[in-house]
């Protein structure tokens, strides 16, 4: 099952859930050193970068290995029960390999859950509680800064390759989806001031970042809590923010965009070239009854109309989404409606996961949970259809010229991405001839020679 393999595998050095700090740095004698393991989504990765930046500013060295660290921070994920289990496993590994472990992140919102399994952790803090993490580090490994040696780069610490960076614009979420506990862990929507986002983005671009990936829990809702106020020349509204960020000259990619009506105002910015023609939209399902049980907007037909309108304005737009199969109460007819909707929508990039209970989620109490074997069978049918759509769409690109950004170069070739591909979650374009002069961060034009189910091959 190639589609299963492709959906679950990413290069280890690019996966957020396997991220270890990779910071070239000579450690001075006696310098306190901290390791970091970052699990989960790109939003957690941004939190890890902020924590490490603060630690570097205080004179700590960052170790990529357990054995080289005086203590290890594990930034956890707690979205699904399987993610919780993975977080507990990572904490156990850090305890075994190092012994001095500080836990933070989403699972930290349930400290008893962590200490019940791992009572020897030094401290547990919740998501985006940077000051508490620093306090815990200070208690375990007191800082010993040398102001003449410990210099922090202006761009801070990054856990991604230097040519792209995630840009978090808000925390929290105002939705009440029954399958999700993120609002309970991260609270209601809190948008960052637009001028602060712009300042961070400008520094990133000045430091060599060629692609900015905008992330949040609900990008479309950015600024609602601020009543879209304007401050220091920048308005806290996603359309204005996208226009301002697009003026910096880097690729700008939008993630987690809910299909509110005002999203259509973003599409002309894509047609103009200010924003990449790419939308990451969490549709989750298509049958109105399933969506109602999820407590999601139940307007799949109107969504198809919106998609058609977006494509009429910007024909080259790429649409990515994720779906839940086997949600409680999902009938075969409801699932077939989802497959039929996917046929009509013809989304470019599609992922899915099988429903599972999450402690504290309201969906747990819904009747008629779908047996595991049926969930698996529906998942496979869904991914087969999604793969066929992807394969056909990529085949249409053979013979065209596309712009790509280079992610990595080795002896065998260059691994690149088109404007239709986000790092870690979408496909790649590979160049295996005449690539020797390329380097990560280059943006070049490529003729597509060959297409697979998810990836492309081309030549300069």
Automatic annotation (TrEMBL):
**Radical SAM core domain: from which residue to which, for each copy?**
159-392
Which Gene3D superfamilies has this protein been placed in? Methylthiotransferase, N-terminal domain, Nucleic acid-binding proteins, tm_1862 like domain
Q: How is the cofactor bound?
A: Binds 2 [4Fe-4S] clusters. One cluster is coordinated with 3 cysteines and an exchangeable S-adenosyl-L-methionine.
Q: Which UniProt keywords apply?
A: 4Fe-4S, Cytoplasm, Iron, Iron-sulfur, Metal-binding, Ribonucleoprotein, Ribosomal protein, S-adenosyl-L-methionine, Transferase
List, for all copies, the residue spans of the domain called MTTase N-terminal.
32-142
| InterPro entries reported in the protein's UniProt record | Elp3/MiaA/NifB-like_rSAM (IPR006638), Methylthiotransferase (IPR005839), Methylthiotransferase_N (IPR013848), Methylthiotransferase_N_sf (IPR038135), NA-bd_OB-fold (IPR012340), Ribosomal_uS12_MeSTrfase_RimO (IPR005840), rSAM (IPR007197), rSAM_horseshoe (IPR023404)
Q: Which CDD domains match?
A: Radical_SAM
What role does it play? Answer: Catalyzes the methylthiolation of an aspartic acid residue of ribosomal protein uS12.
Q: Which reaction does it catalyse?
A: L-aspartate(89)-[ribosomal protein uS12]-hydrogen + (sulfur carrier)-SH + AH2 + 2 S-adenosyl-L-methionine = 3-methylsulfanyl-L-aspartate(89)-[ribosomal protein uS12]-hydrogen + (sulfur carrier)-H + 5'-deoxyadenosine + L-methionine + A + S-adenosyl-L-homocysteine + 2 H(+)
- The Enzyme Commission number assigned here is 2.8.4.4
Gene label = rimO
Cofactor list: [4Fe-4S] cluster
Compartments it resides in: Cytoplasm
Question: What top-tier enzyme class does this entry carry?
Answer: transferase
Q: Spell out the PANTHER family in the cross-references.
A: RIBOSOMAL PROTEIN S12 METHYLTHIOTRANSFERASE RIMO (PTHR43837), RIBOSOMAL PROTEIN US12 METHYLTHIOTRANSFERASE RIMO (PTHR43837:SF1)
- At which positions is [4Fe-4S] cluster 1 bound? 41, 77, 106
* Molecular function terms, GO-annotated: 4 iron, 4 sulfur cluster binding; aspartic acid methylthiotransferase activity; metal ion binding; protein methylthiotransferase activity
- Keyword flag Cytoplasm: yes
Give me any GO biological process, just one: tRNA modification
Major localization listed first in the record, in broad terms: cytoplasm
> What SMART domains does the entry give?
Elp3 (SM00729)
Protein name, per record: Ribosomal protein uS12 methylthiotransferase RimO
Annotated binding of [4Fe-4S] cluster 2, by residue: 173, 177, 180
Q: Where would I find the TRAM domain in this sequence?
A: 395-460
Instruction: Name the family.
Output: Belongs to the methylthiotransferase family. RimO subfamily.
GO cellular component annotations, sorted alphabetically?
A: cytosol; ribosome
């Amino acid at each position: 099952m190639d589609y299963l393999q492709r959906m679950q595998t990413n290069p280890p050095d690019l996966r957020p859930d396997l991220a270890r700090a990779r910071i070239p740095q000579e450690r001075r004698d006696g310098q306190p050193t901290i390791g970091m393991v970052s699990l989960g989504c790109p939003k957690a990765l941004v939190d890890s970068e902020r924590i490490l930046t603060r630690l570097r500013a205080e004179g700590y060295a960052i170790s990529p290995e357990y054995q080289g660290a005086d203590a290890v921070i594990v930034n956890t994920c707690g979205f699904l029960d399987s993610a919780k289990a993975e977080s507990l496993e990572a904490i156990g590994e850090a305890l075994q390999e190092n012994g001095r472990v500080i836990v933070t992140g989403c699972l930290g919102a349930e400290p008893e859950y962590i200490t019940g399994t791992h009572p020897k952790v030094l401290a547990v803090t919740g998501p985006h509680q940077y000051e508490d993490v620093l306090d815990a580090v200070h208690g375990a490994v007191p800082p010993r800064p040398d102001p003449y040696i410990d210099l922090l780069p202006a761009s801070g610490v990054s856990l991604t390759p230097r040519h792209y960076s995630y840009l978090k614009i808000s925390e929290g979420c105002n939705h009440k989806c029954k399958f999700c506990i993120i609002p309970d862990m991260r609270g209601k929507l809190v948008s960052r001031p637009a001028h602060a986002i712009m300042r961070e983005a400008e520094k990133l671009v000045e430091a060599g970042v060629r692609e900015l990936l905008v992330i949040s829990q609900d990008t479309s809702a950015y600024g609602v809590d601020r009543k879209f106020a304007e401050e220091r020349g920048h308005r806290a509204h996603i359309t204005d923010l996208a226009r301002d960020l697009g003026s910096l000259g880097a690729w700008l990619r939008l993630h987690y965009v809910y299909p509110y009506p005002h999203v259509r105002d973003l599409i002309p910015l894509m047609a103009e070239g200010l924003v990449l023609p790419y939308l990451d939209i969490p549709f989750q399902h298509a049958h109105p009854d399933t969506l109602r049980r999820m407590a999601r907007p139940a307007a799949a037909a109107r969504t198809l109309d919106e998609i058609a309108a977006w494509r009429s304005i910007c024909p080259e737009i790429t649409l990515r989404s994720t779906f839940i199969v086997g949600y409680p109460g999902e009938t075969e007819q409801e699932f077939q409606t989802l497959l039929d909707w996917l046929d009509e929508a013809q989304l470019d990039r599609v992922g899915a996961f099988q429903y599972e209970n999450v402690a504290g989620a309201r969906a747990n109490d819904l009747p008629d949970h779908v047996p595991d074997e049926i969930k698996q069978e529906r998942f496979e049918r869904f991914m087969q259809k999604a793969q066929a759509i992807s394969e056909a769409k990529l085949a249409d690109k053979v013979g065209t010229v596309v712009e790509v950004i280079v992610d990595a170069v080795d002896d065998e070739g260059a691994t690149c991405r088109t404007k239709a591909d986000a790092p870690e979650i979408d496909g790649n374009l590979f160049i295996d001839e005449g690539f020797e002069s390329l380097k990560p961060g280059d943006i070049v034009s490529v003729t597509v020679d060959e297409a697979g189910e998810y990836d492309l091959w081309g030549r300069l």
